[in-house]
Design brief:
single chain, mainly alpha, 14 helices, 0% strand, disordered C terminus
Length: 305
């Protein structure tokens, strides 16, 4: 029963990065061009306000600043750095650098949560990095110092957000806490988006609105609620490895919907990524205690004495 429940939680949590893997397709096919920060803000803020209105619950006490911190790490700062990296690092290099996140989460979990950092976890993390590299990296990619720093910073802040989300037990229901973080992250993105890209466009088409609605309702409200539910129920290290499904889904959608080519190396990378996810979910079996050796009659006599 417990095993079936854990599998259900894993599968539901995996839906979040799978949905996030569709962001590239929706952004390029449905949203106005050259508005990445506006898209990130409109993805987070309206969804967060909707959840707060539905739950009718506001933070209290220390959770005012904790919601701000978690919203900044998981959403606001992370999405801003993600888009900077995506713009400055061509050929999937941003996704490759960002794939170090599971290794960062494993290290932070060992420091802050007392989880054991095993050789299997490190091997799975390295396999995930190799898999993502093969899936998305192109030979013509050229490194950029600012882009590399943004990608590493994005992985670091998201890793910190995942671990802190586990460390700080929320005082309210899942949807309420998700709403607080989305509102906090969206409010942080709002001035940045307006200063960098101007106010949101007034001439949005039905197609644009459908894209924003998908990213807000499915890509933010539903996906983040599933993600935070998984963090609460599972190990943060196990959850963060599911993030490797995002570039996997993005690659698959590019092939299925956009007609992009799929090479043998990409298929090998997909298999490596899937293998890393599966390897990270395997739990170490507890070792049975070693039975004490039986005492011989003479030893029993001396023990009694």
């Amino acid at each position: 029963m417990l095993r079936n429940r854990r599998l259900t939680v894993l599968l539901l949590t995996a839906l979040a990065p799978a949905v996030w893997g569709s962001t590239y397709l929706v952004t390029t096919e449905f949203l106005p061009p050259d508005r990445p920060l506006t898209a990130a803000m409109l993805r987070a803020l309206p969804a967060g306000l909707l959840l707060v209105l539905l739950t009718r619950r506001l933070p209290s006490g220390s959770w005012w600043w904790r919601s701000l911190v978690l919203g900044a790490l998981n959403i606001g700062i992370f999405l801003a750095l993600l888009f900077v990296a995506a713009y400055r690092l061509p050929g999937g290099l941003a996704a490759t650098v960002g794939s170090v996140q599971p290794l960062l989460v494993a290290g932070l979990s060992a420091l802050l949560l007392g989880e054991r950092l095993t050789a299997r976890t490190v091997a799975a993390a390295l396999g995930g990095i190799a898999g993502v590299t093969l899936m998305v990296l192109r030979a013509e990619a050229r490194p950029d110092a600012v882009g590399i720093a943004a990608a590493l910073g994005g992985a670091a802040v998201m890793a910190s957000g995942v671990v802190l989300s586990k460390r700080w037990a929320p005082p309210a229901g899942l949807l309420a806490v998700t709403g607080w973080q989305l509102v906090a992250g969206g409010l942080l993105l709002l001035p940045v988006a307006v200063l960098a890209e101007g106010p949101p466009p007034a001439d949005l088409t039905t197609r644009n609105l459908a894209g924003y609605a998908y990213l807000g309702i499915i890509g933010a409200a539903v996906a983040y609620a599933l993600w935070f539910r998984g963090i609460a129920a599972l190990s943060p290290t196990q959850v963060t490895f599911l993030g490797l499904l995002s570039p996997l889904v993005a690659t698959a959608l590019g092939w299925l919907v956009l007609g992009q080519g799929l090479t043998v190396l990409q298929l090998l990378g997909a298999l490596l990524a899937i293998g890393s996810v599966v390897l990270a979910q395997l739990r170490r079996r507890p070792t049975a205690p070693t039975p004490a050796p039986a005492l011989r009659p003479a030893e029993l006599t001396r023990a009694a004495d």
